[in-house]
Predict the 3D structure of the following.
Amino acid sequence: MKLGLVEFLLVSGGAILGAMLRYLASGWLGTSEQRLPLATLAVNLVGSFLIGWLYGCGWLSTSEKVRLFAAVGLLGSLTTFSAFSLETFRRLETGQFGWAFAYVLLSTAGGLAAVAAGVGLGKWWR
């Protein structure tokens, strides 16, 4: 992996844009404190669609600059759920159903467990 100035700027530029879009979505659609966190749902679905579109167009494998700016930077800061969705889809696409299931289960159950552990540690720390 090359980590030169151009690559750094591509990822950084995309990340700034993605973070600002995430922030704007929260302003437009509400906070995560609602019963259904619409902003998070919206960015996850839009991000998943966009990373799927980039993958379907072949741009993630044929253009390193598009991959760095759009997938790593923009969509990476907008939502990491898009990467999770694409990684799961690619396993399903290649018939790796067991690995796809394991990844979904470990990611969701592990993520919830990690949040619970963090909350517990934070409350203990406080």
User: Anything to note?
Assistant: The radius of gyration is 17 Å. The chain is about 85% helix and 0% strand.
